[in-house]
């Protein structure tokens, strides 16, 4: 058996995502946050990745996590939640990435209210996956595990 540790990936979630399951299930589905954590870590195991899932309602904490990812060259799956639409501080932290960063959304923000049509993060992300429910995270993890080019 090889002793090499699997590559680490951070899955970072912004405000209100800890309330998945009870939060507007018609928009975000019935999977709880605990269920999301389980699906991401299990899929990570299948893909040979060590996935760590975090959630915060605090913009400063999210920015510190993005610095941590940049310093350690960790790939990130980022659901910035409402920060997506206005947080230039988070956007500037994401811009410092030293590894792929995939923006994900459970819903399709472009099919919703106008304020959700703007993402301040999209331009500094490797790519964006939106509208596939919890499956958006799975697609992002599969993209990170694959050998597709990421800029
Ligand atoms: C979201 C979409 C955002 O507009 C919203 O503020 C969220 C969740 C999504 O995953 O669909 O909190 O990022």
UniProtKB/TrEMBL annotation:
Instruction: Cite the position(s) of the site with description Transition state stabilizer.
Output: 23
Q: Which PROSITE patterns match?
A: DEHYDROQUINASE_II
Report the pathway entry: Metabolic intermediate biosynthesis; chorismate biosynthesis; chorismate from D-erythrose 4-phosphate and phosphoenolpyruvate: step 3/7
What is the active site of this protein? 28 (proton acceptor), 105 (proton donor)
Q: List the InterPro entries.
A: DHquinase_II (IPR001874), DHquinase_II_CS (IPR018509), DHquinase_II_sf (IPR036441)
Which superkingdom is the protein from?
Bacteria
Q: Reaction catalysed by this chain? A: 3-dehydroquinate = 3-dehydroshikimate + H2O
Which residues are involved in binding substrate?
79, 85, 92, 106-107, 116
Q: GO biological process annotations for this chain's record?
A: amino acid biosynthetic process; aromatic amino acid family biosynthetic process; chorismate biosynthetic process; quinate catabolic process
The EC designation for this entry is 4.2.1.10
EC class name: lyase
Kindly indicate whether the keyword Amino-acid biosynthesis belongs to this entry.
Answer: yes
Q: Which UniProt keywords apply?
A: Amino-acid biosynthesis, Aromatic amino acid biosynthesis, Lyase
One of the record's GO molecular function terms: 3-dehydroquinate dehydratase activity
Q: Name one Pfam family in it.
A: DHquinase_II
The record lists the membrane-crossing segments as none
Q: Which CDD domains match?
A: DHQase_II
> What assembly does the database describe for this protein?
Homododecamer.
Annotated family: Belongs to the type-II 3-dehydroquinase family.
- Give the protein's function: Catalyzes a trans-dehydration via an enolate intermediate.
The name of this protein is 3-dehydroquinate dehydratase
Species this protein is from: Streptomyces pini
Q: Which gene encodes it?
A: aroQ
